């Protein structure tokens, strides 16, 4: 079976669903943001503050190249990782992509003040809505799409499981 890669906006459930699916498949689960934070011993927010967004995006590309050699994994990508044509080509070589599509209003319900503090791109609600609309173009290029608004994590995981079999 191919690797499974979850894409979507921050708060769409990529990490939660990905870790559940990985257990069911007996695959290793990898969260790209967590791995980048661990490698640099810095939070995403601090990486953005200290080095800027371009540096962070370069870290994401390096992460993708590193995991491209690994099999039997479920990956949760950061919200912006899938948002370049170059990255999409590389990601699709790594495995099958599933877009967890979540509406703006549902995302706002899911965000806690802690998440907003940790994620620099969430601080401005107008920017969040604009980013979501801009990124839809890229996200829609995923192999599969699951609408998550009315579903529990278990239901999303079950739909993902059916899609990849």
* Share of helix, binned: 55-70%
Give me the number of helical elements. 9
N-to-C terminal Cα separation, in Å? 8 Å
Oligomeric state of the chains in view? single chain
Tell me the structural class. Answer: alpha/beta
Mean pLDDT: 90
Uncertain runs: none
Shape: globular
Element string (H = helix, E = strand): EHEHHHEHEHHHEH
CATH architectural arrangement? 3-Layer(aba) Sandwich
| The first-level CATH class name | Alpha Beta
* CATH superfamily heading: P-loop containing nucleotide triphosphate hydrolases
Rg on CA atoms, Å: 15 Å
Number of domains: 1
Strand order of the largest sheet: 2-3-1-4-5
Strand content is: 5-15%
Largest sheet: 5 strands, parallel
State the CATH topology: Rossmann fold
Number of beta-strand segments = 5
Descriptive overview:
This protein is of the alpha/beta class and 165 residues long. The chain has a single domain (3-164), classed as 3-Layer(aba) Sandwich (Rossmann fold), CATH 3.40.50.300. Helices cover 57% and strands 15% of the residues. It has nine helices and five strands, in the order βαβαααβαβαααβα. It has helices spanning 14-25, 32-40, 44-51, 53-67, 85-94, 104-110, 113-118, 125-139, 153-164; strands spanning 3-7, 28-31, 73-76, 95-101, 144-147. The protein has a five-stranded parallel beta sheet. The longest helix has 15 residues, at 53-67. The radius of gyration is 15 Å and the shape is globular. The N and C termini lie close together (8 Å).
